[in-house]
Amino acid sequence: MSDTIAGLRRTIDSAGELQSVVRTMKAMAASSIGQYEQSVRSLGDYARTVELGLGACFRTASPGVSSNSQVGVPSTRSKPQLIGAVVFGSDQGLVGQFNEVIVEYAGHAIGEMHGTPKVWAVGQRAHSRLADTGWPPVGLFHVPSSVKAITPLIGEILVAAEELRSQGDTVELHLFYNRPMSAVVYEPVHQQLLPLDEDWQHRLATAPWPTHRPPQILGSRTATLRTLIREYLFVSLFRACAESLASENASRLSAMQRAEKNIEELLEDLNGKFHRLRQSTIDEELFDVVSGFDALSNDIVG
Fold it and tell me: Using one digit for the tens of pLDDT, what is the confidence trace for 32-49?
């Protein structure tokens, strides 16, 4: 009986240690969510400034001249020969269905596109799942471990996209990532970066200017437009990566909450079994003592 009690005690101790690990991971995930969400909020003002600059360029465009063609990007009406797609996933596990959701969503969207897809995966686990869906990635990028590591990743993606553009006359660039909806909920989203959407250009060009003075462009409009488009690509990629990381940690937080609840229920059950078994052992020992005392008393009386 004592061996069984010792075994239960070891199991309870192991569950307690696992509970400590889960609580630590839960706290780290919650902290990371705030870090990445803060970076997206901080990016908002700069993104707004870039859009205002693009709007000023689109206002001064010559009638019938596409902004895409002026910066060497094909029109949205052209049929793409090559389609670049970046799918943001995770390198680590314990994230529930995070990778499965975005890979399934991206695979369905890519399958409906016209052209030859070239897919890059951000994250080893997304890379493995994409290979199983029939869209084997042509490249793999590692998931940033902090906000500071996002900028180098963006540089790698832009270099890969430029190499792809040099291979074909017409190229599209798409992003697929999970966007956080609440503390533990996210949804897959799709964003086309290139070519620049002409409806989006029109909205920026016709949006009310925030001051009474109309915008003016100093120097070359084409050079200014190229610079602003580079900043637009940077902002879009940074936001996509940061929101994907926030969603990843939200999924991990949800998984840790479920694990913590299961461990608490397990510990409650194990502690109940331990106390019942210990009480049973004590009762048996008392019964043996009483029986021995009775036997000894009968011998003395006899």
Answer: 888 999 999 999 999 999
pTM: 0.81
For residues 32, 33, 39 and 45, what is the CA-based torsion angle, rounded to 10 degrees? -170
What's the token pair of residue 199?
């409806």
> Token pair for residue 181?
């909806």
- pLDDT digits 0-9 by tens, 140-196: 999 999 999 999 999 999 999 888 888 766 689 999 999 998 766 899 999 999 999
Which helix (H) or strand (E) covers residue 83, if one does?
A: strand 82-88
Q: Please say whether the beta carbons of 160 and 226 come within 8 A.
A: no
H or E stretch at 41: helix 2-59
Residues 91, 129 contacting (CB under 8 angstroms): no
Q: Which domains does the chain have, with CATH numbers?
A: 28-255 (3.40.1380.10)
